[in-house]
Write a structure and sequence with these properties.
Elements (H helix, E strand, L loop, with lengths): L21 H17 L29 H4 L10 H15 L9 H22 L1 H11 L13 H16 L3 H27 L3 H27 L3
Length: 231
Amino acid sequence: RILKQKNSFSTCRIPRDFYSTPYTYKLYQQLRNYASQNTCWNCGTVLGNGIFCSKCNFLQKVDEQKDYFDILDLPKSFNVDSNALTKKFRQMQSVLHPDKFSSRSQEEQDISLEWSSLVNKAYKTLLAPIKRGEYILEQNGRELPQDNSALDQKFLMEMMERNEEVDEAETDEDLKKLQHKVKEELDEISLELCKAFEEKRLDDAVATIVRMKYSISLGNSLKEKRRRLGF
């Protein structure tokens, strides 16, 4: 006997002997999963790539596994255009924000909240260079070390010396010079990191992100000291 389809795989009538073997049971589960992911939860219409059903216009459920770059319709690259990212984020929130669904069903309101939260999380992750780099590493099955194992001793010694420079600087001019130097270093590190990801040199990317974190921390220390001294 065969499956008798009504509106979608999710509403199939299943013969009693369909579960007779592990293979057929697994196949049935795959069909149900396919249906739940590719048909509208409200009307059962087969979906395209959009997040609204083309037939009933209901907002579709969130796919938590969806890539942040795909969500915001951006190329999968460390080199992100922050203006394009922000523009896309605002466009999506103007459509998905829960306020837009105040007169819709409770389920759509809940789905809207989930979508809005996911888009917000994706935006914040891709906007910040460190978080963006960590996310790309995570997508490639890598993560940053919990210690300084990714750094060579020369760089660590250099960072210690730089921290001493911050401690010793007392004038606004000295602090501004150090800030300018940090900015130049961060620009250089960003280019190195972009190239490492493009060439899929993940070990180098890990080490470069750790260096970036140290440099950003140094820049924050300089900013805080200028604030503390009233500059």
